[in-house]
Amino acid sequence: MARLFHVPLSPFCRKVRLSLAEKKIEVELVEERYWEQDPDFMRRNPAGKVPVLRLDGIMMSESAAICEYIEETRPEPSLLPQDPLQRLEVRRLVSWFDDKFHREVTSKLLYERVNKKMMKQGYPDSTNVKAGAKAIKYHLDYMAWLLDHRRWLAGDNMTLADFAAAAHLSSLDYISDVDWNRSDAVKDWYAKIKSRPAFRALLADQVSGFPPPRHYNDLDF
Fold first, then answer.
1. What superfamily does domain 3-73 belong to in CATH?
2. pLDDT tens across 129-188, in order?
3. For labeling, which of 41, 53, 125, 160 is most exposed (least CB within 10 Å)?
């Protein structure tokens, strides 16, 4: 069985978990306090980051590389289109959420409010929190624009781009930092992806000291 070293609210870990679940790959989840830099974990990934996945006898790191490996070795159901231009768009949007959205939103909301407390690094920086709360509006509006032109974020079919976005937004939703009333299109998109069997394990996550909001496990939120 595959083994994933992860942190429950890490969007990068969640993206890998969604990919594994969508392709029905059984995985053992091992929660890893990576910030403590345990020697055993550092041997698995000298970069000291999660996720780290053991699959096919290989220890692999970096969520983008992991998801690409899963896609190439387990191509069904496909999370990347066959057309090169469409694949380019999927990869562009994965990078958008894992880079720009993460830098402007996730790191300023989730990391300030949750990670700092878990790592005992003090209190949230209010300037960062305000910046993240402002930036997420721009990103939700951009998603709404995409969904006005497409069935899913990158085109007519659900792809890894949708999983990347949902991984970040589900982590933020756990701490009630997403205004779902800002866009009906985004809310409907999230309801669709949240109702998939691959999402069930994420909805069962519990983080000590941070109970989820009442709507979090509700598929008809």
1. Glutaredoxin (3.40.30.10)
2. 999 999 999 999 999 999 999 999 999 999 999 999 999 999 999 999 999 999 999 999
3. 125
| Alpha-carbon gap, residue 108 to 114, rounded angstroms | 10
Q: Using alpha carbons, list the distances in angstroms from residue 14 to 37, 82, 139, 149.
A: 21, 24, 19, 26
Domain boundaries, the chain: 3-73, 84-200
Helix (H, G, I), strand (E, B), or coil: what is residue 154?
Answer: coil
Cα separation, 181 vs 94, in Å, equals: 24
37-91 pLDDT tens trace:
999 999 999 999 999 999 999 999 999 999 999 999 999 999 999 999 999 999 9
| Local structure of residue 32 (DSSP, 8 states) | -
Alpha-carbon distances, residue 176 vs 100, 110, 122, 179 (angstroms)? 21, 10, 21, 8
For residue 10, count CB atoms less than 10 angstroms from its CB and return exposed for 0-12, middle for 13-18, buried for 19 or more. Answer: buried
pTM: 0.96
CA torsion through residues 57, 16, 90, 191, sign: positive
Strand, helix or coil for residue 57: coil
Is 159 in a helix, a strand, or coil?
coil
Q: Which pLDDT does position 61 carry in this prediction? A: 97
Tokens linked to 178? 């997403």
